[in-house]
Specification:
Shape: elongated
Distance between the termini: 59 Å
Structural class: mainly alpha
């Protein structure tokens, strides 16, 4: 069987981290990672990025900005509805 290319490995890393790959595909990826330092480094960077983003959490939009944005969007939607 022909192994995964680096591009194929990168495309499925998200699913791998979510444990959403089938056993065979996960095993193919793990074999690729065992032989490819670059993809292993990519996976480690990808994991760390996900950890950092999760640690930051969701930023709350300030109330004033939320009100202004809502007004802007409603104005734009009204203009679209009237054909302007």
């Amino acid at each position: 069987m022909i192994g995964l290319t680096c591009q194929e490995a990168i495309e499925i890393m998200g699913d791998y981290l979510e444990a959403a790959l089938g056993v065979m595909v996960a095993a193919d990826l793990e074999r690729h990672l065992d032989a490819c330092d670059e993809c292993t480094a990519y996976l480690n960077t990808y994991k760390k990025t996900r950890e950092l983003v999760a640690a930051i959490g969701r930023a709350e939009m300030p109330a004033e900005l939320r009100v202004r944005l809502r007004g802007f969007l409603l104005t734009r939607l009204s203009a679209t509805d009237t054909g302007r």
